[in-house]
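Lecture notes, part 5. Sequence design as translation. It can be helpful to think of inverse folding as translation between two languages: the language of shapes and the language of residues. The source text, in structure tokens, appears below.
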């Protein structure tokens, strides 16, 4: 059952009056996980997280109509939503009675979880990020949320880590039961895109070349490039760069690693190469982003 004596409400974040409560877990003074409840019409919703972060959302009331990466979605009560930090979110309609719970976490927190989802399922989540939940599934998810809220406020880091891991495995099982054959109903092009994107999420720190990913998919680099451009409107290199930039931002924002260490972690030849890459894609140097991350979303 839900916690009978909720912890006291905390003040809304400045500029976000729709936040009912917000709590976060920090490591080495950097936020690695946040948990938020949002009520009502929140026009600045995509700005609530300092990117890059993953997010799992549970919509319990109201309706949201909009797009995720130019794919039209209608998010209704008892919906779950999986979001990557580089997703483009646009809400065209949002009912005033909306209520949702969001759990956002950095790449580093995800690595601490050591979640090992099958590649096919990760591909499905990337291509189909919104799914329906039953009443009982939503009830269980909110029980996790309520307990997480208490543990985060009490800074019980090990317990939080294990509880988030348990929640994600539980959601993955529900999702696989809902769409057991879903990957086979996708067009061949969308299957390839999902598989490619999931490979990039897992291996981008070690592998930067299109040839490697094409080889893993048993495709020619030219064919993979054509499929991605026609389906996603992006080249394979652009997709790889996008994920690398997101992970670089996360490392700069949520860790105390030096720029050289981050360059090494992400597989760059040297700090200079990494700095040039980061400036080209983020519009500023790694050091400047670290001091002013919110100015370069």
């Amino acid at each position: 059952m839900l916690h009978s004596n909720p912890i006291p409400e905390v003040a809304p974040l400045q500029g976000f009056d729709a936040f009912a409560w917000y709590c976060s877990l920090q490591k080495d003074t950097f936020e690695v996980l946040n948990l938020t409840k949002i009520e009502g019409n929140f026009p600045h919703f995509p700005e609530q997280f300092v990117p890059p972060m993953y997010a799992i959302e549970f919509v319990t009331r109201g309706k949201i109509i909009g797009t995720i990466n130019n794919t039209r979605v209608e998010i209704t009560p008892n919906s779950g939503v999986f979001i990557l930090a580089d997703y483009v979110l646009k809400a065209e309609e949002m009912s005033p009675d909306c209520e949702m719970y969001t759990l956002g976490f950095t790449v580093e927190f995800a690595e601490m979880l050591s979640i090992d989802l099958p590649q096919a399922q990760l591909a499905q989540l990337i291509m189909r990020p919104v799914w329906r939940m039953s009443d009982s599934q939503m009830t269980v998810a909110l029980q996790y949320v309520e307990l997480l809220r208490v543990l985060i406020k009490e800074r019980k880091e090990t317990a939080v880590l294990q509880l988030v891991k348990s929640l994600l495995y539980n959601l993955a099982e529900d999702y696989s039961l809902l769409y057991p054959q879903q990957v086979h109903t996708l067009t061949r092009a969308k299957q390839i895109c999902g598989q490619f994107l999931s490979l990039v999420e897992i291996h981008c720190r070690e592998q930067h070349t299109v040839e490697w990913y094409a080889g893993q998919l048993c495709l020619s680099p030219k064919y993979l490039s054509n499929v991605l451009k026609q389906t996603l409107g992006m080249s394979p290199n652009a997709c790889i760069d996008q994920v690398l930039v997101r992970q670089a931002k996360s490392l700069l924002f949520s860790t105390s690693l030096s720029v050289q260490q981050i360059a090494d972690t992400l597989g760059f030849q040297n700090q200079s190469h990494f700095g040039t890459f980061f400036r080209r894609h983020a519009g500023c140097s790694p050091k400047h982003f670290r001091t002013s991350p919110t100015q370069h979303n």
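The translated text above is only one of many valid answers, since several sequences can fold into similar shapes. The chain has two domains: 19-178, 187-296.
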